[in-house]
Input
Amino acid sequence: QVQLVESGGGLVQAGGSLMLSCVASGGSLIMYAMAWFRQAPGKEREFVATINWDSEHMEYADSVKGRFTIFRNNAENTAWLRMNNVNADDSAVYYCAADRKMSLSGDDFAFWGQGTQVTVSP
Output
């Protein structure tokens, strides 16, 4: 089955940029929607961004719209989240998810990565 591995997290200064990667193995993702979610300590998991299988449709949470970009390369089985102009509220563990159906709900995604920590410093 599909396995997802995130990378690219770390410490970044407020106002800076970061690029998260999600590499899939165990099956082609060409027909899968991809998404990014995040969860901060004491908070519920929240939707960040999603992209359909052919990159025709993308949706973003209002909190990241205009700052974050999701994109993918199906030939490489990889999706990315480019994070620009980050702020303290962006600090969280970021998770990559995949499923055959596009959704804004984490409950609809069957495959998940282990997460990568993003910490924004003042």
In short: The longest strand covers residues 18-25. The CA atoms of residues 51 and 58 lie 4 Å apart. The chain has a mean pLDDT of 95.
